[in-house]
Amino acid sequence: MEISSALNKSNHQAAWLDKSHPNYNRWERARKLSVERGRIVKTLLEKYRTITNKNILDIGSGEGGTSSVFSENNFVISVDLSLLRLQRQKANFQIKNSVNSNALKLPFSDSSFDIIILQDVIEHLSDSENFLYEIKRVLKSNGIIYLSTPNKFSIINILSDPHWGLPLVAVFKRETIRNIFLKYFRKSELNRKDLAELISLNKILKMFSDEFEIRLQTKKVVENLFSNSDGIVWSNFHLSLIRALKKFSLDKFIIKIANDNLGMINKFFTPTFYLVMKRKSV
Question: What domains does the chain contain, in order, with CATH numbers?
Answer without folding.
Answer: 2-279 (3.40.50.150)
